[in-house]
């Protein structure tokens, strides 16, 4: 059973899906959510045959102009690619057995958490739930070093995957989430 809600099909729905992927437990993804599919409709069974003797468009099986799975698989910035990257990250000892530190940055709408296990890469998730851009100093969180590597982001225009940035002033656009990989800072 699928229950519709006020965030389905919005940027917040994608952000919540990305945010939940590295939390402890089993993430729940509704069929098609990993592709950004929205507005589920019943299959029109009376109209399921393809026209005979007409040129068949291989893209989207000739029935849709929307982005399909193949185009998302070929796009390193698609939601599908982000989802796949996060599924792979779930195999990391930091996610499987590491600590979880939750944090809300004062004066912002940014929720954050880290997943760290000694001797393994750490993960930082920053989720700006607000309607304004937010800049945070991620070093406020234990174990977060000066440099982070972008793993995935919901806002492709703001930062590119696999790029490095300084953790002292991480900028997140409104209603956006970013996941970073890092070498945890030694405890002082």
From TrEMBL:
Species source reads Graphocephala atropunctata
GO MF annotations in UniProt = aromatic amino acid transmembrane transporter activity; L-alanine transmembrane transporter activity; L-leucine transmembrane transporter activity
Task: Spell out the protein name for this chain.
Answer: Glycosyl hydrolase family 13 catalytic domain-containing protein
Q: Which GO terms describe its cellular component?
A: apical plasma membrane; basolateral plasma membrane
Listed transmembrane segments: none
> Highest taxon of the source?
Eukaryota
A GO biological process of this protein is: L-alanine import across plasma membrane
